[in-house]
Amino acid sequence: MKKTICLLPGDFCGPEIMEQGVAVLKAVAAKFNHEFVFETALIGGAAIDATGGPLPEATIEACRKADAVFLAAVGGPKWDNLDPSIRPEKGLLGIRKALGLFANLRPAMLLPELAGACLLRPDVAARGLDLIVVRELTGDIYFGEPRGIETRDGQRVGFNTMIYSEEEVRRIAKVAFEAARLRRKKVCSVEKSNVLETSRLWKSVVEETHKDYPDIELSHMYVDNAAMQLVRDPSQFDVIVTGNIFGDILSDEASVITGSLGMLPSASLGASGPGLFEPIHGSAPDIAGQDKVNPLATILSAAMLLRMAFGLETEAAAVEKAVRAVLADGYRTGDIMEDGKTLVGCKEMGRLVIERL
Ligand code: IPM
Ligand code: MG
Known about the structure:
Elements: E1 2-10, H1 14-32, E2 35-40, H2 44-51, H3 57-65, E3 68-73, H4 88-98, E4 103-109, H5 122-125, E5 130-136, E6 148-152, E7 155-159, H6 166-181, E8 186-191, H7 197-210, E9 217-222, H8 223-232, E10 239-242, H9 244-256, E11 265-269, E12 275-279, H10 296-308, H11 313-328, E13 331-332, E14 342-343, H12 346-356
Parallel strand pairs: 1-2, 1-3, 3-12, 5-10, 8-9, 8-10, 13-14
Antiparallel strand pairs: 4-5, 4-11, 6-7, 11-12
Helix pairs in contact: 1-10, 1-12, 2-4, 6-7, 8-9, 10-11, 11-12
The structure holds 3-isopropylmalic acid and magnesium ion.
Magnesium ion binds at residues 248, 252.
Function: Catalyzes the oxidation of 3-carboxy-2-hydroxy-4-methylpentanoate (3-isopropylmalate) to 3-carboxy-4-methyl-2-oxopentanoate. The product decarboxylates to 4-methyl-2 oxopentanoate.
Organism: Candidatus Desulfovibrio intestinavium
Keywords: Amino-acid biosynthesis, Branched-chain amino acid biosynthesis, Cytoplasm, Leucine biosynthesis, Magnesium, Manganese, Metal-binding, NAD, Oxidoreductase
C-alpha cells in the first residue's frame, strides 16, 4: 500500500517524539511491505517563528493532499505573550476546522503493565478503566459567535457563545454509537441540560439518533456528575459522547487518572478527507530536548493512524503489542517510572519498540 503522511512536528518536545513515531511507521512499512511517503509542514510556534502565523496556507494544503496527518505537539511559554490571534493553539484549532475534523476520539485505558501508576485507589482501579471519550471538535463555545471583550456600561465584559445545530449533534452521536458497536455497546451522553438550552437540544438529538442504534445502551449524565463518576468508578463507562468544551475537560481527567498521560493517543476525523492523529499530551517544555520525553503516546497514535486512516489492523495491532512488550520487559520513561524498572530515554524507548515489532 502506498500512502502519503503529512507530519506536523510542532514545538518543544514535538520533533523528538515525532522522530520516534516516524521511525516506527518506517519499520512497519519495511516489515509489511508498504510505502509511506512523508512530508513535513509547519504548525504552532515553529510556524510563528518561520512565517509570522501559526497555520500557514502551505500547511493546510499539504494536509489536504495527504492520506493522513500525524501531529506531535504545539505551544509553549515562548509564545505565551503573543496576541491571542497568533498563539500556537490557533494553529491546532485552525487545522481541525480547515480539515472538518469534527470527531475527536480519545481512548483512556489502564494497561495492566502500568496499573501501579494509576491515581485511583487500588480497589477502584481493580474494576478496570477502558473508555473512550468521543468529543465534538469543531463547534460549541470554541467557535461560536458572537465572541469578544468589549466595554459595556463603563466596564469590560468578556463573552462567548455556546451553540450547536442538530446536524452537528447528530453526526457526532452517530460516531459514538458506531464506536460503541465495536466495544461494549454502551454510550453515555454528557451535557448540562438542567441549565443550558444547548444541552437540552443535544440530549434530544442524541435520543432521536439512538433510535437507529437499538443494540446500544444509551444513558445521560450531567457534566458535573460525570466528572465525579470518572473518579468514583470509571469502570461504568464505555463510550462517553460530549461537546467540545466538556470533552476537553473530561478527556484530560479520564487520561490523567490512568497515571500515564504520556501513553495516550487520539484521532480526529471528519466526514471525508484525511484524519489527524496525535498524542493527547502537550509539548512538555520543561523536559524538551533532553531525550527524556515519553514517545509512546505518539507511537500509539501512529497505530491509530494505521488502523483508522489506512485500515491496517494487523499492522496497528503489531505496534500496540510491541509497546506492551516493552512495558512488560520493564522499560520506562521518567513519567511512568516505578521502583525496580529500567529508566530509558525517548530514543531508546523508540528503539525498543521497533526491536519488538
Ligand atoms: C486539546 C487542547 C486544545 C483544546 C488546546 C491546545 C487548544 O487542550 O487538544 O485538548 O482545547 O482543544
Ligand atoms: Mg485539552
